[in-house]
Write a sequence for this structure.
């Protein structure tokens, strides 16, 4: 059986809304392929096995860098995973976060509002999925759905408010199964 797409998200609890949108985005484009989402375990050791089996690593930064996010970051870098990093520019960074950002040579996608995050995340993630194909485990139908969605996004502006935030349980990790 095809294992499908696997995404690992490093994020603290304050980033739940952003994690939710990642899950919704993947569910909307992987209607014919299986997708697995893993997330930083709250208050425990990182899931390094889950991280190593992922094709894409997403790190979300808010106010503070909590354990084990730093360990996950280093493991993803060492494994050479395709990495996307998003940072809430409105969050006042803790000293640990400031130090982490200063030490990393990485191009962060900064956002100020949930609508701006949605737009940047969707465009960046979907483009990365296409760039990493065929290694993402997505079937041809899913790749075509992604290409169509990216075409739709080309005309949209960052100021567009987008859909209202609607949480439906996709932010904590899980498995997205293809529709029958």
């Amino acid at each position: 059986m095809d294992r499908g797409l696997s995404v690992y998200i490093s994020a603290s609890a304050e980033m739940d809304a952003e994690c939710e949108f990642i899950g919704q985005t993947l569910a909307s484009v992987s209607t014919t392929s299986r997708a697995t989402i893993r997330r930083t375990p709250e208050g425990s050791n990182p899931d390094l096995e889950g991280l190593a089996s992922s094709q894409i690593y997403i790190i979300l930064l808010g106010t503070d860098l909590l354990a084990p996010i730093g360990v996950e970051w280093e493991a993803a870098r060492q494994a050479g995973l395709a990495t996307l990093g998003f940072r809430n520019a409105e969050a006042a960074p803790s000293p640990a976060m400031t130090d982490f950002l200063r030490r990393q040579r990485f191009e962060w996608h900064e956002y100020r509002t949930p609508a701006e995050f949605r737009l940047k995340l969707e465009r960046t993630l979907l483009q990365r999925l296409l760039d990493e194909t065929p290694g993402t485990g997505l079937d041809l139908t899913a790749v075509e759905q992604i290409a169509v969605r990216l075409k739709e996004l080309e005309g949209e502006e960052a100021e567009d408010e987008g859909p209202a935030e609607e949480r439906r349980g996709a932010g904590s990790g899980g498995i997205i199964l293809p529709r029958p």
